[in-house]
Amino acid sequence: MSLRENIILALRTVRSNWLRAILTLMIIAFGIMALVGILTAIDVGINSLSDNLSNLGANTFTIEPSGEGVRGRQGGRQEKRGEPISYDEALAFKGRYDFPARVSTSMRCTGSATIKHEDEKTNPNVRIFGVDENYLEAKGFELNAGRSFTGLEALRGGFLAVIGDEIVSELFKGQPEKAIGQSIRAGSIKLKVVGTLKSKGSSMGGSDDRAVLIPLQTAKRYYGSDRTDYDIIVAVNDATQIEAGTDYATGLFRNVRGLRASQNNDFEIRQSDNLISIIRENTTYFRAAAVGIGIITLIGAAIGLMNIMLVSVTERTREIGICKAIGAKRGTIMTQFLAEAVTISLVGGLVGIVLGVLAGNVVAVISGGSFLFPYGWGVVAIIACTGVGLISGLYPAMKASRLDPIESLRYE
User: Fold this and answer.
1) Are residues 366 and 309 in the same domain?
2) Domain count, the chain
3) In this model, does residue 232 exceed pLDDT 60?
């Protein structure tokens, strides 16, 4: 009997016991869904973050205190957190960094502001940043209407604002030109809108379209403290000089921080590709947990499938006897039952892959990322299902092939 005939016979048997087969099939499907769904969600999240970080460009790097952000542990120990970058240190670095590059200094003010314009107001989840004249270029923002701040406005301060695309939609009915020159309130601060930003989408840290940018000095006056950490982003003019730029920045910032030659750096220089590598490294544990969940569920499914196959052998004892009586060999009987077990397992696996991909891509919908089909994990799932089918069907198939044809024909 050919493989095609065995598969057709297996599907016919599944159809004749459809309720029992579907229950077993769904156990396998949920195991694969857990495996593929979690792994897809992780990959979608990383891709979304990677896309947003890529907007910084290959020619940018950031300076931040050591121990900040997402990082792994080295040798079981985590590096001591460095002191925040002060306003004076950030401006000193910006003024003294004479490498061919543009330096941006900024600070995060709040992530829970409510922005008002006349009778309209946003939800209290708007982020406010204090920025300088180089911030938009360094972060990959584009103006939709109006202008950014000048260097003098950033240094002296002023009640000005550049607002994100979602703020325009909520307060000005999606008309960026109408927003220019209008007044908005962020808490007790009254600001004049001088620019609006094009939509940039969301990242793992929140939506860049729900942001309000104000001059750095104004942000320092209203939101700053002695422990405020200022962000430094450097955009090198020539991307091929990025390594030289980071080396020069390291030496200069050590000098700005007043570190002695014997002291280690209490700050870090990060490029977006390095950050993605760190995130991938830290998600290894999540991937291992997902694989563990999938394996545990598949073990349960394998036990259930083996039980179904043993019941099937008992129910079809007389059929097996007839097959042997007309010349069927042991190998043919074994192949028939193995094909049935593998078919049930693969159908369950395919259902699980579809459900897992759909569940995992919910993250893409939430984060504004693109749909992802994990072909690699899909192949792994199919291989795992084939293995489950073979393992679960092996003992029942061997039992069926060893039945005595005369005793089988007598079976009632």
Assistant:
1) yes
2) 2
3) yes
Residue 73 lies in a domain: no
Ordered DSSP codes for 94-136: HHH--SSEEEEEEEEEEEEE-EEETTEE--S-EEEEEE-TTHH
Question: Are 195 and 111 spatial neighbours (Cβ–Cβ below 8 Å)?
Answer: no
The answer to whether residue 148 scores a pLDDT higher than 90 is yes
Rg (CA), the chain: 31
Task: Sort 395 into a burial class: Cβ within 10 Å, 0-12 / 13-18 / 19+.
Answer: middle
Phi, then psi, of 326 in degrees rounded to 5: -95, 10
> How many other CB atoms are there within 10 angstroms of residue 249's CB atom?
23
Nearest to 135 by CA among 64, 216, 256, 205: 216
Question: Using one digit for the tens of pLDDT, what is the confidence trace for 174-200?
Answer: 899 999 999 999 988 999 999 999 987
**H or E stretch covering 250:** helix 242-257
132 with 242, same domain: the answer is yes
In this structure, which amino acid lies at residue 180? Answer: I
Which position has the token pair 């499907």? 29
Q: Are strands 189-197 and 101-113 parallel, antiparallel or unpaired?
A: unpaired
Other CB atoms closer than 10 Å to residue 64's CB: what's the count?
Answer: 19
Please compute the mean of the pLDDT values over residues 330-338 and round it to a whole number: 84
Interval 118-135 mean pLDDT: 93
Angle, helices 284-315/330-360, rounded to nearest 10 degrees:
140
Number of other residues whose CB lies within 10 A of the CB of residue 6: 19
From 208, 237, 265, give the residue that closes a domain: 265
- Close Cβ partners of 61 (under 8 Å, ≥ 6 residues apart): 233, 234, 236, 242, 245, 246, 249, 269, 270, 271
Tell me if 117 sits within 8 A of 161, measured CB to CB: no
pLDDT one-digit tens code per residue, 364-374: 677 666 677 88
Instruction: With beta carbons less than 8 A apart as the criterion, state whether 36 and 360 touch.
Output: yes
CA distance 198 to 200: 6
**CA 265 and chain centroid, separation:** 31
- Tokens 């104004």 correspond to 218
How confident is the model at residue 258, as a pLDDT? 92
Does residue 271 belong to any structural domain of this protein? no
